[in-house]
């Protein structure tokens, strides 16, 4: 259990998420995330040099990623500090926030900035020399499509892992469709009153189209309207499977940032000093081969155990749910109502840019918990390699 690491209220932002091959498709995500952070800090009138450490989360190769950590620190205006590059697929935000919290807990740093930015669009195609191959033929790898379609250890695609869990635990097509529709309805609640909920944390992205023309992206791009009738017409992605394209997420582009600091600094930076956000605990897991959709449950249970809490103590639950089966399995095992968590949005609907995916959900959970008057927040989600990561926060 942690006791010294805090997040200032409003000491975070998330960009809108953009469905891949849309408006952010040609942007280097490290540059875009850093530039968005610099503008966000300026809007708060905060000096970037107040940070003593930076953690950058990126999972998809970008030009100059070799210099990613210190480069992003310099780009935001903190060229006096080092930066660490963290990459753990969809758990990158959760792990990065925990690493920053550990830095504060141990006195390694006092005011860390965590930046998570990815671009699923136009993912790199990597080649390696292979002089012994026939005719010197190179070895190649497509970062996005090949990694989604095959786990070298588990031996299956991402969608197959979800179908494995669905099959083994009696999750039906009808249940997946019902959850997909419920998650869409929850997302639309964040759009009510001119996107009042999203405007609590969302910060626009600026894409430079030319020397004189800038595109400002203020809201999510590429969200597909979901209806019961539309879901019923879709075919399963895999033969006889429980998931259609309507019951799984889509790749996206985006970024988010959070400050992790001491209690004293958090109070000074908070937009409301009466609201305190403490990082309480972290949990992780690795489940059986090719059963990734199970992983959020043991990760969540570890985080709860380390915090000395039960799931009934939690006020707000958010998950990274790339497939509807994730939430259905978790609800069954943890005795939850599947309709009563992931309020205001989840990755199933707003998309999956990898590194910032969990970060946005954690930010949304904080805001929902503040609206409820405080309590405990639990975020949990799966990640590549049949792994999971979870975090518990206390809002008061």
Automatic annotation (TrEMBL):
The keyword ATP-binding does not apply. Gene3D superfamilies: 3.40.47.10. One of its GO terms (molecular function) is acetyl-CoA C-acyltransferase activity. Residues 15-263 form the Thiolase N-terminal domain. InterPro entries: Thiolase, Thiolase-like, Thiolase_C, Thiolase_N. The keyword Metal-binding does not apply. Pfam families: Thiolase_C, Thiolase_N. One of its GO terms (cellular component) is cytosol. Keywords: Acyltransferase, Transferase. Residues 278-394 form the Thiolase C-terminal domain. It comes from the Bacteria. The active site is at residues 90, 352, 382. Belongs to the thiolase-like superfamily. Thiolase family. This is Acetyl-CoA acetyltransferase family protein. It comes from Desulfoprunum benzoelyticum.
């Amino acid at each position: 259990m942690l006791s010294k690491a805090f997040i200032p209220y409003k000491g975070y932002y998330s960009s809108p998420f953009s469905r891949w091959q849309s408006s952010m498709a040609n942007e280097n995500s490290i540059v875009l995330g850093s530039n968005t952070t610099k503008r966000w800090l300026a809007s708060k009138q905060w000096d970037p040099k107040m940070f003593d450490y930076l953690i950058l989360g990126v999972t998809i190769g970008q030009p100059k990623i070799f210099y990613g950590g210190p480069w992003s620190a310099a780009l935001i205006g903190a060229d006096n500090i080092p930066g660490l590059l963290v990459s753990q697929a969809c758990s990158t935000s959760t792990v990065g926030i925990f690493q920053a919290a550990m830095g504060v807990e141990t006195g390694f740093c006092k005011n860390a900035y965590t930046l998570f930015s990815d671009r699923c669009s136009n993912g790199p195609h990597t080649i390696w020399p292979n002089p012994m191959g026939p005719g010197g033929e190179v070895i190649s790898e497509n970062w996005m499509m090949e990694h989604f379609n095959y786990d070298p250890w588990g031996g299956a695609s991402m969608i197959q892992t979800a179908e494995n869990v669905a099959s083994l635990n009696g999750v039906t097509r009808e249940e997946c469709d019902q959850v997909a529709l419920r998650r869409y309805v929850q997302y639309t609640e964040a759009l009510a009153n001119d996107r009042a909920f999203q405007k609590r944390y969302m910060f626009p992205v600026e894409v430079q189209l030319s020397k004189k023309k800038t595109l400002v992206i203020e809201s999510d791009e590429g969200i597909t309207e979901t209806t019961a009738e539309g879901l019923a017409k879709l075919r399963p992605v895999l033969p006889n499977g429980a998931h259609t394209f309507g019951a799984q997420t889509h790749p996206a582009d985006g970024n988010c940032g959070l400050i992790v600091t001491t209690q004293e600094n958090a109070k000074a930076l908070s937009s409301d000093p009466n609201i305190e956000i403490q990082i309480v605990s972290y949990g992780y897991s690795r489940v059986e081969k090719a059963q990734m959709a199970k992983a959020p449950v043991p990760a969540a249970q570890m985080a709860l155990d380390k915090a000395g809490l039960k799931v009934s103590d939690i006020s707000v639950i958010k998950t990274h749910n790339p497939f509807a089966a994730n939430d259905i399995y978790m609800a069954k095992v943890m005795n939850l109502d599947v309709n009563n968590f992931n309020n205001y949005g989840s990755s199933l609907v707003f998309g999956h840019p990898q590194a910032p995916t969990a970060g946005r959900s954690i930010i949304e959970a904080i805001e929902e918990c503040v609206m409820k008057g405080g309590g405990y927040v639990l975020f949990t989600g799966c990640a590549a390699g049949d792994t999971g990561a979870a975090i518990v926060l206390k809002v008061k």
